[in-house]
Amino acid sequence: MKVALIYNQKKTDATKPIDYFSEFDSPETINAISLALNNRGYKVDLVEAEQPNLVSYFRNNRVDMVFNISEGVTGRLRESQVPAILDYLDIPYTGSNTFSLALALNKAVTKKLLQAENIPTPPFQVFSKSNEELRPDLKFPLIVKPNREGSGKGIDCSNVAGGADALFKKIRQIIETYKQEALVEEFIDGKELTVGILENGKIGILPILEIDFSSCKGSGEYFYSWRMKEYQGNTDMGLVPEFFCPARLDKDTAELVQETALKTHRAIGCFDMSRTDIRLSKEGVPYVLEINPLPGLNPQESNFPLMAYAAGMKYDDLIEAILINASKRRLAIR
Q1: Which burial class, exposed, middle or buried, applies to 101 when counting CB atoms under 10 A from its CB (0-12, 13-18, 19+)?
Q2: pTM, 2 dp
């Protein structure tokens, strides 16, 4: 089988915000996926998603399957760009379709769907302008996020506001810097959890990963901010969270958290894989923060592989499972 691995590679650009390319993949990740596929006997072509003639490339270089880790380039629906091209050309690919990727990228729309499905998510409000009034039922502390970004972009410890002045200052900053609406939601004080769903012939829930930030308090960071994700493991910066997989949860709570992640995966319509970020409140409520249909696949640092390892899988097993499930889906609709 000939597989095209399509990606966006991290780069630097002094004219862009420092976190602009955070969602893009490192050469280490790209090479690791390519090697895993080669190890299992697949012929792999590496394809940069930002090339201007992507449609022509695929018309002239037919492949059996595309392994998609591309985040797209620009625009409100950027994560859907590559799948939209592949759908147009009738080329199968791994992971979720255009609709699910566009939906999950928009945090506010995702949260509205979660509410409709009775899946817990923190109360929120979307600000298109910084002079809009705050809903009186929202309770401080509140956290401010860019509504259509991932990888902790635009988020640091100052995004958690304890009062109106700090809140609206951050709202203005988000709108001006990221040229999009700001999402404001109640900050849930509790355990940081993430849950991977891997479809491997059937839907399977990976062991829950708990991220404990207690050892990072000296850095000023105490949740998954951009700095935490970008420099995780940096001892000089104090960004050294502890990971527990399986999470330190009792059986009933673990089952509730996993059920919540599975419901989210299905509600968004994800395929092959997803990773749902959850804050477990002190009252035991699993609040869904967001879902990522394109979870990071760095073999050393990304949460999704860590959960797969805890399930007894090797990295090559994980990558091939994603590919095989996509192939089975393709055959099922033929």
Answers
A1: buried
A2: 0.94
